[in-house]
Design a protein that fits this description.
This protein is of the alpha/beta class. The protein has 24 helices and 18 strands. The strands form 4 sheets. The chain has a 7-stranded mixed sheet, with helices on both faces. The radius of gyration is 28 Å and the shape is globular. The termini are far apart.
Length: 590
């Protein structure tokens, strides 16, 4: 069946189908039609390229429109020999299928039954004329069909690009996937970065990452191939491979949209931009560093319109939630959330801001970058390249008559001093700090240059946070965990009885893996946290420069639990696993 014959029975135009199903606005449809008229091609491709629709919604509409089923990775052959033998039968090299982004295999009649073999083609663009012409010519060469009956031996299926990438990277040898030398020609980098196949490939990387709710995309060049990995729930997962020769074109495309120098490959670079996917804006923060075989690119994805979870959804319950809300309701003082990059510090602070955003207080944030858009709050993006850093921005904010200030991060003495002085003059100041525990923030502030008396007078609360993966509720199973029980006993001993668990029976669970969690056994994340309220006893100890052990003893009297102890509690309740808690916190806390 030719593309013309297929188009003769299309149910409805793809744009109309997407709009009727609520996947596409009239405004975006108009934009897509204009782009299609300018660059040609199919409307669905144009809409996806400008970020108006998701690939998932586009594929589903195409499935209904063309009457073709959608194949997932589970429906693809697991043996690469099936792919290679089919390509050989059609007299088409594997690289040809790589270029056309299609997968092929031959389906034989069931044992004992008489019938003809069927060639299966899986593609995200089954209407591609060159794909159809090449396959049909191959069918004739292989004698699998003759004029008039050839299409009885041919069946097309749809699949999203991530499925095809996974399959092709599994089937095609590294040496087979090498591209032409033109991809490594520096003089053509910009031209290649603007070509449709490269644009589509990069866009598909982004949409695949967003669909999996990945926080980062890692693209790393090695000698034979380049590898794409997504960080999902804090853990990296390999998602695709492509020919090393094509890496420069892909890297150039990413660097171009991020405003980076595509010709500079010897020095580290940073860039950022805002792009649209499925009608939503996403901030990209791109970092490139030179490596042995090329460059390593890391793209952080920041969804500006993501709905923030509530405190319970973050995993902040019980005493942690009560103390946090009490600290946020204070009329002045500094509240710090500590932890490494990617531990959810900013998300917790944003939820705190929404909690106190009652319309009666002036709330201003200064961030790098602005990660969430919150109505009723003035949000400021720092621009270090022009000298507008946190310290300078904070001085300007204080002239705006704010009640609450959020500083993205305290990095130096100047910013810390201004924040402390702002707290002493009647402002609530929220910020983040990079330390391993809540009480370590006291030591860190001293290292930055703040005096102990200023810390004691200005800081109202300290909180440390980590994120652990939640067990997939669809496949997790109850388990006996004697190691976990030993950790609980040890934690009680080390805390001198301050850490206690309810007298309920243990509910340990183990991860299994299923389709819903991509066979990881985990789905989503929750926060582990420890929170300290700076009361009179703690304030006096900080002023007297008491050792950390004394501060910890005072905190335990408040009901304080360490990150590890909180993790043990959640693992024992069956929300996560002991191995996850150990991965994120380690046993040093007990």
């Amino acid at each position: 069946m030719t593309a013309h014959e297929v188009s003769s029975f299309l149910a409805k135009p793809i744009g109309e189908m997407l709009r009727e199903r609520g996947h596409l606005s009239e405004k975006d449809l108009t934009k897509g039609l204009a782009v299609q008229q300018e660059i040609g091609g199919l409307l669905g491709q144009a809409l996806h390229r400008i970020g108006a629709v998701t690939e998932e919604s586009l594929i589903q509409c195409l499935s209904d429109q063309l009457g073709l089923s959608v194949i997932t990775t589970a429906g693809l052959p697991a043996d690469r020999r099936d792919f290679l033998s089919a390509a050989e039968r059609l007299s088409l090299p594997p690289a040809w299928f790589l270029a056309h982004r299609a997968v092929v295999w031959i389906e034989k009649p069931p044992d004992g039954e008489v019938g003809q073999e069927t060639v299966i083609i899986v593609s995200s663009d089954p209407l591609c004329a060159s794909l159809r012409e090449g396959v049909e010519a191959g069918l004739q060469r292989a004698g699998l069909g003759r004029d008039g009956t050839i299409h009885q031996s041919l069946r097309y299926h749809l699949a999203d690009n991530q499925t095809i990438d996974i399959c092709l990277s599994r089937f095609i040898d590294e040496e087979t996937s090498d591209e032409d030398d033109e991809f490594s020609d520096t003089s053509r980098l910009r031209e290649l970065a603007e070509e449709a196949p490269v644009i589509d490939y990069v866009n598909n990387l982004f949409t695949g990452a967003l669909r999996e709710n990945a926080s980062d995309i890692h693209i790393e060049a090695y000698e034979p191939v380049a590898v794409v990995r997504y960080r999902v729930d804090g853990v990296l997962h390999e998602r695709a491979k492509f020919g090393r020769g094509r890496f420069d074109a892909v890297a150039s495309r990413i660097k171009l949209i991020a405003g980076m120098d595509i010709a500079e490959r010897r020095l580290p670079q940073d860039g950022r931009c805002t792009v649209r996917f499925a009608g939503n804006e996403v901030d990209l923060r791109v970092s490139s560093v030179p490596s042995t075989w090329g460059e390593s690119l890391v793209i952080r994805l920041l969804r500006k319109q993501t709905e923030l979870p509530d405190l319970a959804g973050l995993g902040l319950v019980g005493r942690t939630s009560d103390v946090l809300q009490r600290l946020l309701s204070q009329p002045n003082g500094v509240f710090l959330v500590t932890g490494p990059t990617g531990s959810g510090k900013s998300t917790t602070l944003y939820r705190g801001l929404e909690h106190i955003n009652d319309g009666h207080r002036k709330i201003i944030t200064i961030e790098d970058p602005v990660e969430y858009d919150i109505s009723g709050i003035t949000q400021i993006q720092v621009k270090p390249e022009i000298g507008y850093d946190f310290a300078n921005g904070l001085r300007a904010i204080l002239r705006q008559d704010p009640d609450v200030i959020m500083i993205g991060e305290i990095r130096d003495k100047e910013t810390a001093t201004i924040a402390a002085q702002a707290a002493l003059t009647g402002h609530v100041v929220l910020s983040t700090l990079h330390t391993n525990s809540a009480l370590a923030a006291v030591t860190r502030l001293k290292d930055i240059g703040l005096e102990s008396f200023l810390i004691a007078a200005s800081v109202r609360g300290l909180m440390a946070q980590r994120l652990v993966r939640k067990l997939c509720k669809n496949c997790c199973q109850p388990a006996v965990n004697t190691e976990g029980d030993r950790y609980v006993e040890k934690a009680v001993q080390m805390s001198r009885g301050a850490f206690q668990l309810e007298a309920l029976s243990a509910n340990w669970h183990a991860q299994v893996g299923c389709e819903q969690c991509a066979d990881t056994g985990y789905h989503g994340r929750i926060a582990l946290s420890e929170i300290v309220e700076i009361d009179d006893a703690m304030r006096e100890a900080i002023s007297d420069e008491a050792p950390p052990s004394t501060l910890l003893e005072i905190a335990h009297k408040q009901g304080f639990e360490t990150l590890f102890e909180t993790g043990l509690r959640k693992a024992r309740l069956g929300e996560t696993t002991l191995s996850e808690v150990l991965r994120v916190c380690s046993g040093d806390y007990v």
